Hints:
Layout: E1 2-6, H1 11-24, E2 27-34, H2 44-50, E3 55-60, H3 62-75, H4 92-106, E4 110-112, H5 121-132, E5 138-139, H6 152-162, E6 175-178, E7 183-186, E8 216-223, E9 226-230, E10 233-234, H7 237-250, E11 255-261, E12 267-273, H8 275-291, H9 294-313, H10 319-331, E13 337-344, E14 347-354, H11 362-365, H12 377-396
Helix pairs in contact: 1-6, 3-7, 4-5, 7-8, 9-10
Amino acid sequence: MKVVLAYSGGLDTSVILKWLQDQYHAEVITFCADLGQEEELSGLHEKAYKTGAVKSYIEDLTEEFARDFIFPMFQAGAIYENVYLLGTSIARPLIAKRLVEIAAAEGADAICHGATGKGNDQVRFELSAYALKPDIQVIAPWRLKEWTFRSRSDLIAYCEQRGIPCKTTAKKPYSMDRNLLHISFEGGILEDPWQEPPVETHVLTTPVEQAPDKAEYVVVAFEKGNPVAVNGESLSPANLMRRLNKLGGKHGVGRVDVVETRFTGMKDRGIYETPGGTILYHAHRALEGICMDREAMHLRDQLIPQYSTMVYNGFWFAPERELLQAAITESQKNVTGEVRCKLYKGNCIIVGRRSPYTLYNPDVVTFEQDSVYNQGDATGFIKLNALRLRLRALAAKPQA
Length: 400
């Protein structure tokens, strides 16, 4: 049997790599998508082979990730439950896509992932895989009767017994997931929602107490809703994310402590650091404010919760998400221009925006004297809008 394992080198997949060999006598091919984990990828090939992998893939997908997944999602203004910028959610469909492609190229019998039966990632991985290859066989160890491990403590003990190197320890049993968009922390000591997160969960962002006392300005340029430059320098999608992460992280921007509702229905506490994404989110909204028609924007905004839930729940490759994306792309055709942000002590403050397609006309909106707007026109406008209210009030009066 040949299996392609979605492999991060973390606690779960380190154990699963060895378990697949013991349980199925499988030849295991590991695949790790480089989505911007940086130093976390160091030594991963060596670890995979040392643990018994017959082949190890590590592929740099950072440009595709930013261009084809992060940017379209940010065009949509996606934010789950009004706070989560979907950093983990948006990475899963791309990982699943390459997992299926590698399985086909290698003639594998199945793919495997380390997501638990309680979480969202199992759904995201498998919905994406089935959408792309309907007959794919999926092994999800955490849902199998043969899987005898019941806790992260069990996995840590197994690693110690089998000599499998792993960064997760009994003192730091929370899980981390990092990519170009964010880093997340869940589990372990974070499972008490009253407990303040430890300082070591600051990876991408400086604690606000240590952030610079002087504000820094950053200008983000957009073309058709996609970011293309920072402070006048054109950058590739992945490098633009790296630049904004560095700038935002320096000033403690983009850190949130969330209790969210998983697709399975349970509540989960997570710590997310999304410095570059937070800058993009606010800058994009600010530019839309001067470029988008009111009714088009309001209609799009009504769709944000649905779109965000689709991404969160794993329906990236579903027809409903693709339909909405087409409408969103159309809505962004004039969202071109620049936004100036002020970064200070965890805040991203919008202080300027400009666009060749601006709908903002100072001659019309000015409080000073103008010759383009007749204020008397508002009288009829108000009376027509008040008509139904007046009729309602008259109908409510008792008849004499």
